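Onboarding guide, step 5: your first structure request.
Type a short instruction followed by the sequence, for example:

Predict the 3D structure of this protein.
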Amino acid sequence: MTKVLSLGGSIVAPDTPDHEFIRGFAASIRAWLTADSSRRLIIVVGGGGPARAWQQAYRNAVDSPDTEAQDWIGIMATRLNAQLIRSLFLDLCPHDVVVDPTSVTVFGGTVLVASGWKPGFSTDFDAVVLAERFQADVVINLSNIAKVYSADPRTDPDAQPIDSISWKDFRAMVGDEWTPGKNVPFDPIASKRAEELGLRVICAAGKDLANLEALLNDQPFAGTTIGA
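The system replies with structure tokens like these:
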């Protein structure tokens, strides 16, 4: 049994690394894995605060910022965060951090950690590619939002939380284009590929470890299922 976690960088490092969360996260994952020897987990890690800060610094420093350059800055932040997460599972993760999800042919151990890949794609897309490659039927997307909303709740007081939504309706909300640092529950390019694969994505609050354990154990959870 293989599950895929798209672990938002804003959970790992909102500004600087959140060591208390990281410790609890590692303990929860280890408990889940040791309960059943058939379990394997792929963790794809985002860039978080460092990615946004370094991208903003670049935009402030030049008159005409290059989109691909911004993407590479974000990708490098994901690789740093991914190396941190992999270091928590050295005994379970014999592979180096995966930087190209299309190149992985073997999954040894019980944990595989991946980072950003290349410009034009977010770590959400990498998670979808790895879910396809290792026959996972769901991607659990952990971020700083507990559910998908009908609109941005920070700007729209009438925004309502959504428990379940089709890919068609979700993609109408997020659009079809990816831009570096775009803040959506699941990125548009990844959403298109997930729909094509018939893959489910569950969006949930990343720091709620009890809820994460419920998700991993297929128990009732708080979050939004896309593609139900």
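Each response can be followed by summary notes, for example: The domain at 2-226 is CATH 3.40.1160.10 (Carbamate kinase).
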